[in-house]
Amino acid sequence: MVWVVVCAVVALLGGGYLFLLGREVVRKGGRLLREVDEAVTRAEQAARAGAPDPPPGT
Question: Structure pTM?
Answer without folding.
Answer: 0.53
